């Protein structure tokens, strides 16, 4: 049971730290952290382009995503386009200004990861990355 608590604590801490980074980036660009997270998510996940994709990948409420997407479109950070063959779906595209914000978020999160991995030697890091790869594969399989 103690091990499960460590996993949960790590996941909570990692999400909280990422959110704090996006709050800082958001303050600089005049955006809420959630909107920075949406831009970064779209930037990082090629092929992800709809509100439903964001909902599945970010675990945010659908109405929250819709509100933030509307704000990002109004501010010129996202563009909407219809999806061929499905009138109900709308594809979202990052503008150049949105890419700058997402890149800044990623740059800072990479710095955060460097700090988190401080004190781990190369061999331990290789094992960690291997284990994360397996965990990620299992998570993707379970999500289907």
Q: Could you walk me through the main structural features you see in this protein, from its secondary elements to its overall organization?
A:
- This protein is mainly alpha-helical.
- The chain has one domain: Winged helix-like DNA-binding domain superfamily/Winged helix DNA-binding domain (Arc Repressor Mutant, subunit A, Orthogonal Bundle).
- The protein has helices at 2-29, 33-44, 51-58, 62-74, 96-116, 122-143; strands at residues 78-83, 86-94.
- A hairpin with a 2-residue loop joins strand 1 (78-83) and strand 2 (86-94).
- The longest helix is centred in the N-terminal third of the chain and has 28 residues, at 2-29.
- It is globular.
- It starts with a helix and ends with a helix.
- 17% of the residues are buried.
- The mean pLDDT is 87.
Largest sheet: 2 strands, antiparallel
Q: How much of the residues is beta strand, in percent?
A: 5-15%
Tally of helical segments: 6
- Rg for CA atoms: 17 Å
User: Portion of residues in helices?
Assistant: over 70%
């Amino acid at each position: 049971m103690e091990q499960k608590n460590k996993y949960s604590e790590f996941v909570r801490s990692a999400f909280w730290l990422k959110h704090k980074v996006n709050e800082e980036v958001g303050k600089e660009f005049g955006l809420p952290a959630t909107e920075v997270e949406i831009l970064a998510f779209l930037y990082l996940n090629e092929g992800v382009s709809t509100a439903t994709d964001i909902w599945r990948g970010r675990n945010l409420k659908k109405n929250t995503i819709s509100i933030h997407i509307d704000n990002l479109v109004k501010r010129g950070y996202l563009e909407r386009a219809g999806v061929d063959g499905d009138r109900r779906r709308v594809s979202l595209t990052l503008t150049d200004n949105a890419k700058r914000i997402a890149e800044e978020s990623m740059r800072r999160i990479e710095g955060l990861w460097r700090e988190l991995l401080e004190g781990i030697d190369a061999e331990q890091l290789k094992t960690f990355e291997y284990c994360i790869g397996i965990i990620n594969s299992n998570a993707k399989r379970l999500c289907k």
